[in-house]
Design brief:
Blueprint (H helix, E strand, L loop, with lengths): L2 E4 L6 H12 L2 E4 H9 L4 H12 L5 H14 L6 E4 L5 H14 L5 E6 L2 H17 L10 H15 L1 H9 L2 E5 L4 H13 L2
Parallel strand pairs: 1-3, 1-4, 2-3, 4-5
Helix pairs in contact: 2-3, 4-5
Bound molecules: BIS(adenosine)-5'-tetraphosphate.
BIS(adenosine)-5'-tetraphosphate (B4P) binds next to α1, α2, α6 and α9.
Length: 194
C-alpha cells in the first residue's frame, strides 16, 4: 500500500509515518529528512536548501523531486511507501503520479491530518522548548516567525492538493488533534477502508 501523509507543519506527518514504519514495515520517504541531510553536505545545493528551510519557505520542486526520484530508485518499497511531506505543490503531485506509473505502482490513499493553527504553534514551539531544555539541537525553522511563513506556504502552495486528491477519490481527511495513538487509530481505519 502506498500512501501520502498531507497536512500543515507540525500536523504530525513525521510522527505518524514513524509509527507506520514500526508497525507495518512500510518505507518512509520524508522530504523534510532528506533536505535536512542535504543541508549538512556543505555543497552549494545544501547551502541553498538551508537558507530556504530556515526562512520557512518551500525548497524548489526540481530539487525535491530529484531527491524523491533518487530515493525511489534505491528502495524496493516492498511494504509500501509513505510519502511524508511530499508532494507539497501541484507540480510535485504531478511528478509523483508519473513516477508511480513508471514503477507500475498505485497510490492507495492520501491521508490529510487536520490540525488548527493554534495547536500547530503550540506543538512546534513546544518541540523547540523541549529540545533546548534537553540540550539537543533546536530545528532552525522551529520558531514562531518561520512557522508563520511555513503556514502561509502551506495554505498557498500545498492546500490546493486537498481538492486535487479529493477529485481523484483518494482523499481521506482525519482529525489530527487527538493523542498520537488516537490519530494512529484514525489512520489505520482510513487505510483499512481502501
Ligand atoms: P517537514 O520535515 O516535512 O516537517 P513539518 O511539516 O514541519 O512537520 P510534521 O507534520 O512532520 O510534524 P511532526 O510529526 O514532526 O518539513 C520541514 C521543511 O522542509 C519545510 O518547511 C520545507 O522548507 C522543507 N520541505 C519538506 N518537504 C518539502 C517539499 N516536498 N517541497 C518543498 N519543501 C519541502 O510533529 C511536530 C511536533 O508535534 C512534534 O514535536 C511532535 O512530537 C508533536 N506531535 C505530533 N503529533 C502529535 C499529537 N497527536 N499530539 C500532540 N503533539 C504531537
Amino acid at each position: 500500500m502506498n500512501i501520502i501523509l498531507l497536512g500543515p507543519p507540525g500536523a504530525g506527518k513525521g510522527t505518524q509515518a514513524q509509527k507506520l514504519v514500526e508497525e507495518r514495515n512500510m518505507v518512509q520517504l520524508s522530504t523534510g529528512d532528506m533536505l535536512r541531510a542535504a543541508r549538512t553536505s556543505g555543497t552549494d545545493m545544501g547551502n541553498k536548501v538551508a537558507e530556504v528551510m530556515d526562512r520557512g519557505e518551500l525548497v524548489t520542486d526540481d530539487i525535491v523531486i530529484g531527491l524523491i526520484r533518487e530515493q525511489l530508485a534505491k528502495d524496493d518499497g516492498a511494504g509500501g511507501y509513505i510519502f511524508d511531506g511530499f508532494p507539497r505543490t501541484l507540480a510535485q503531485a504531478d511528478a509523483l503520479g508519473r513516477l508511480l506509473i513508471d514503477m507500475g505502482e498505485n497510490l492507495d490513499a492520501v491521508i490529510e491530518l487536520q490540525v488548527d493553527d493554534d495547536a500547530l504553534v503550540g506543538r512546534i514551539v513546544g518541540r523547540a522548548k523541549e529540545a533546548a531544555a534537553a540540550g539537543q539541537p533546536v530545528r532552525a525553522d522551529d520558531n514562531e516567525e518561520s512557522l508563520r511563513i511555513r503556514l502561509m506556504a502551506y495554505y498557498k502552495q500545498t492546500s490546493p492538493l486537498v481538492g486535487y486528491y479529493y477529485a481523484k477519490g483518494d482523499l481521506r481527511s482525519i482529525n489530527g488533534l487527538g493523542s498520537m495513538e488516537e490519530v494512529a487509530e484514525s489512520i489505520a481505519k482510513a487505510m483499512a477502508g481502501k
